[in-house]
């Protein structure tokens, strides 16, 4: 442990499993205190927070609800005194298929969680960081689908592409305000989690130049860098971690 995040307090949404869990665990390993949030997988979120010991706290949260963000920020400040880092990781894949067959409800569900949820995380993260000297790091987990279209996933691609430009616009706004709040996006490619069906794994790997899927820890490691003071000159940037697929 190198204590790269010593003294920092982070909120990691969607941290009950997979990439979010890896980020939360990596943050604590580097000295941070972490508020773990999840909506449906409450049991998983509680287990992750319990594993983190005194450095962890679980709060149930629907990221698309403003009141839930207020609740999470208050819980972080009550327990740990401040907020230094927000990782907007929570997201859903939604319904796939031709655009013309996508219902408005299907579309709205994905946009609400993946894009509106990130907007609220940025909004309330900045507000909390203003109370803490106007400094901090917001990390929006997007996707390679936010860099180019993903067939049969119009809502998902739109939400992730929207997150990419939300990141840039918010980063510039914070800079124009004179804040030391850095806002960056992370764009994972194929990451080895339970979400990927076994029957497609072999075909997926064949499309990755380095010949293997990423691990949740690969995403967590870049988030440690972005949460730490090592990345103090990075804002409005996008970090693609995809094994070379977009090279």
From TrEMBL:
InterPro entries, per database record: NAD(P)-bd_dom_sf (IPR036291), Sc_DH/Rdtase_CS (IPR020904), SDR_fam (IPR002347)
UniProt xrefs under Pfam families: adh_short_C2
Keywords: Oxidoreductase
GO molecular function, one term: glucose 1-dehydrogenase [NAD(P)+] activity
PROSITE patterns listed in its UniProt record: ADH_SHORT
UniProt superkingdom: Bacteria
Record flagged with keyword Ribonucleoprotein: no
Any one GO BP annotation for this protein: bile acid metabolic process
Entry keyword Oxidoreductase: yes
E.C. designation(s): 1.1.1.47
NCBIfam families listed in its UniProt record: PRK07231.1
Cross-referenced PANTHER family: DEHYDROGENASES, SHORT CHAIN, ESTRADIOL 17-BETA-DEHYDROGENASE 8-RELATED
UniProt family annotation: Belongs to the short-chain dehydrogenases/reductases (SDR) family.
Protein name from the UniProt record: Glucose 1-dehydrogenase
Organism, as annotated: Furfurilactobacillus milii
């Amino acid at each position: 442990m190198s204590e790269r995040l010593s003294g920092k307090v982070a909120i990691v949404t969607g941290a009950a499993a997979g990439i979010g869990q890896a980020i939360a665990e990596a943050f604590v390993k580097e000295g941070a205190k972490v508020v773990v949030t999840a909506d449906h997988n409450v049991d998983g979120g509680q287990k992750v927070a319990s594993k983190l010991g005194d450095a962890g706290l679980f709060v149930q949260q629907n990221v698309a609800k403003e009141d839930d963000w207020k609740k999470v920020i208050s819980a972080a400040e009550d327990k740990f005194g401040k907020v230094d880092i927000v990782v907007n990781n929570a997201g859903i894949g939604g319904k796939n298929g031709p655009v013309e067959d996508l219902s408005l409800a299907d579309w709205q569900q994905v946009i609400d969680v993946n894009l509106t949820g990130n907007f609220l995380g940025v909004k309330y993260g900045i507000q909390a960081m203003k109370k803490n000297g106007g400094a901090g790091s917001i990390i929006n987990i997007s996707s390679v689908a936010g860099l180019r279209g993903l067939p049969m996933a119009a809502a998902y691609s739109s939400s992730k592409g929207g997150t990419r430009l939300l990141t840039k616009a918010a980063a510039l706004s914070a800079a124009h305000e004179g804040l030391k709040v850095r806002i960056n996006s992370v764009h994972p490619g194929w990451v080895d989690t339970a979400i990927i069906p076994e029957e497609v794994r072999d075909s997926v790997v064949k499309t990755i130049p380095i010949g293997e899927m990423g691990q949740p820890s690969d995403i967590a490691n870049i988030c440690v860098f972005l949460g730490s003071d090592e990345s103090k000159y990075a804002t409005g940037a996008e970090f693609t971690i995809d094994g070379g697929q977009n090279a």
